[in-house]
Fold this protein.
Amino acid sequence: MSAQVEQRDAIGASVRRKEDAPLVQGQAQWVDNLGGPGTVYLGIVRSPFAHARLRKVDVTPALAHAEVVAAWTGADLAEEWLGSLPCAWLPTEDTKAPVHYPVATEIARHAGDAVAVVAALSRAAAEDASELVEVDYEPLDAVVDPEAALAEGAPLVHEEFGTNRCFTWTLETGEVDRLFAEAAVTVKERYRQQRLIPNAIEPRAVFVQPVPAAGEYTMWSTTQVPHIARITLSGVVGIPEAKLRVIAPDVGGGFGSKLNVYAEEALALAIARRLGRPVKWTETRSEGYLSTIHGRDQIQEIELAAGVDGKITAVRARLTVGMGAYLQLVTPGVPLLGAWLYAGTYAVDGYSFECTGVFTHATPTDAYRGAGRPEATYAIERAVDALAGKLEIDPVEIRRRNFIKEFPATIASGLTIDSGDYEASLDAALEKAGYEELRAEQRSRRDLDDPKRLGIGLCTYVEMCGLAPSAILGAIRFSAGGWDTATIRCLPTGTCQVLTGTSPHGQGHETSWSQIVADRLGYEIDEVEVLHGDTSVVPLGMDTYGSRSLAVGGVALYHAADRISEKAKKLAAHRLGVDEAQVDHVRGVFRGPEDSLTLKELAFHAWTAHDLPEGMEPGLEATYVYDPPNFSWPAGAHVAVVEVDTETGDVQLLRYVAIDDVGTVINPMIVDGQVMGGLAQGVAQALYEEAVYDEDGNLQTTNMATYLVPSAADLPDWELGRTETPSPTNPLGVKGVGETGTIASTAAVMNAVVDALTVDGIDNIDMPVNPERVWRALEEARR
């Protein structure tokens, strides 16, 4: 099937993805496919201890290996670094930011912390030689639980701070204490957000090609953030930014795990500079479980104050968050991305939020799909169900009584939601699910004392995404901006190039961006080439994360198209000999009173420059840098239906209905794919995935045999639908979609599980809800 569609259908059409053909035909360019003459391969020696003093690191035995080119300890490499790996988000002035060298010099602070590096002529030789490095470890006490890490006498991750507390950040509005004191009813809940391990289909990899004579370096990396990586690594390694080119080729997924600047990237650059030859590193899956970031790791305490009618007046939330051993790019800021959302879709008067970040002897945490928003949604949606249970009000009804109903709405935490209709999404979800019929079936099963309990769980959510605007990011001490850029080049041969500052890794930007250009400028979709992920081709950009690409990069493209149209209209008026006001533009055709010119014809005229209006520059090209005025605010309502076997503890997800409002939809097929992927990850947190450490800080789930990632066979056929309230803050009316499924599904599934087991006296189970946890909860309830 061709990607072509008629222009009038460009936006809103399920166009098959242009980028898929090379991926499925084996013609993609993955980092691990790259190489060249003289390439050396890195093998990294990693600490088997969560906390240990490095009494001696001896690389001499590795140097005796026939294929080893060089080997270094952390002390050997220290002279290469002008600074440690940085954190871009230090939430408070007194946030404790430890030095984070790519290779530890004195103390290993988590299992997997790098302690030496070997360069060899093959990957196998690098791995073999790494095992020859002799390290004399002095094991030290470790702590991996964030609450235990705050206790008196806990082992310190960074002794220089005298505490494991990294920061405490607070937000409070309204008379919270008074509202709780006056409340007819309150609920107080405690939830555990377990650690999760990202599992992108492509492991991390980096390849650096130096040009020693020119002092230039090209780095290919499996990164979501080539522009941010270029700036950051320039400072870390000391290579001038103008001499460093970063390319993100085809990238096999990220989910936030590749939203980072990693030690291995800095190592590869520094070693390429030292050796003057290409350097390559590719992680193994088990290595990635130790050295790529983890997600979540929160203890949540949330309280609701309400009247006897269930109307919520105030929310109080308190988090204790495990940061791991170091601060990666946005580690402290991740829980704060949800800080404004602990009241969810509900209108409340008082709001209090406190977050304490804690160092532990574990792999650092950072952004993982949803980044703070799934955690916030989970807490409020679980607590609202608890309130409904306490007041014996149906979970649907208690939501209706509390919804924000008028927009734009300034929520209790201080931000403004520009548009929404939460009741419409809930109505659509209930109708699609057959909610009343499900409740009737549940009552029937309970009357029969069926050991297979039916549970129905709801989640109504709103998320802030787009990670913008820049002024707000500056106010919360995030050092990057919220803007992004797009350039359109109308080529004289009748095709078009788009340069975007976003960097896709599975989202379908090449197709969606082509649809926007087709709609605005009249090109066929196959005539548009989208270039991205290369800092030399697209020098300006803020990359892809936080569901920002369409809401920021796509809107920048819309405005760039308008600039193309403005210039082309002036040129058309000149060529047609009419007033500019007499020229109308509709999808690439510029029509005057008697004649017309196409954009392709005008692009050729602009290139020849034989007859341009006075003062007009040759060529038809435009750039727009867009800094959005607000976050974007997707929302929706999800319904999960589960069956819990009280004899075995097994939980089966029978049905899942997702109704999402993501504003204007550019490509429904791509949107559905994004929602489905997000749902799988959210369900996985509820039912399957957990990173488990023992008390000594040893990761017990070090591969896919012990860390359970669900397959398609473990998941139902998703039942999807949409409502639409376009965003009034951008001309496309778009919001975001990449994280919606993950944000809503964990809470919906867990509410369903608890709903199934309320008749057995169970009101909470920790995630993931595996058969053992269910069985133990039932046994405890029976006792």
Summary: Residues 1-8 have pLDDT under 50 and may be disordered.
